[in-house]
Amino acid sequence: MDEKAVAPVPPGPASVVFGDALPLAVEFAERLAAAGVERGLIGPREVERLWDRHLLNSAVVAERIDSGARVVDVGSGAGLPGIPLALARPDLDLTLLEPMARRVAWLEEVVGALGLTVRVVRGRAEEPGIKQRRAGADVVIARAVAPLDRLWGWSAPLLRQGGRLLALKGESAEAEATRDSAAVSRAGGGTPRVGRCGVGVLEVPTTIIEVERVGVRPRTGVRGRRQRVSRQDQGH
């Protein structure tokens, strides 16, 4: 293995976040650093910051999720944030949702190798069949998938009333929450709230935007445009 493909040593907070699952988190990091780079799932420059920027950044969202919750990771990709979350919280009923076949193959390999009780489903959140089969989730999580208004439009049909979207975001979270608040409200969401996860544990806490499903999704797009919605599109 090339030296550049070797995952860095886990930092101190990793043992706090992952507990007994730390050896599995190390194995996941090693897989990302080697096969993950080779298969184009992460960039080679990300290897040095695998722990802080990717694994720990994803796993600390666990503090916002209740025990035994039903969770869907939309656009799971390389398994972020879903696999670190599954390692930190094996009590969760977790589904990794990903449309691309090569990424689905990767997720299935990793889930099997780590012995995780996690579902891997190929599809897009907006597909009628996915909305029908995955509806009723307590939480939808997503990382670097889409702007908030579009992401909420995909997530809302998957959530039960009172369910929440936890979107991992960067420095622009406050501006994005303000910009898309009206569109989210029109699509059945509450006021987007920006929060931090891992405060006191991580040097740089994870920034999230949290949105609760408070109403029935109306017959307008997330930007308020009128559109016809068939019974099939509504998941019937």
UniProtKB/TrEMBL annotation:
Which Gene Ontology molecular function entries are recorded, alphabetically? Answer: rRNA (guanine-N7-)-methyltransferase activity
According to the UniProt record, one GO cellular component term is: cytosol
Xref: InterPro entries = rRNA_ssu_MeTfrase_G, SAM-dependent_MTases_sf
- Taken from the record, one Pfam family name reads GidB
Q: What is its EC number?
A: 2.1.1.-
The membrane-spanning stretches of this chain are: none
Give the chief site where it resides: cytoplasm
Q: Where in the cell is it found?
A: Cytoplasm
User: Which keywords describe this protein according to UniProt?
Assistant: Cytoplasm, Methyltransferase, rRNA processing, S-adenosyl-L-methionine, Transferase
Could you tell me what this protein does? Specifically methylates the N7 position of a guanine in 16S rRNA.
**Name of protein:** Ribosomal RNA small subunit methyltransferase G
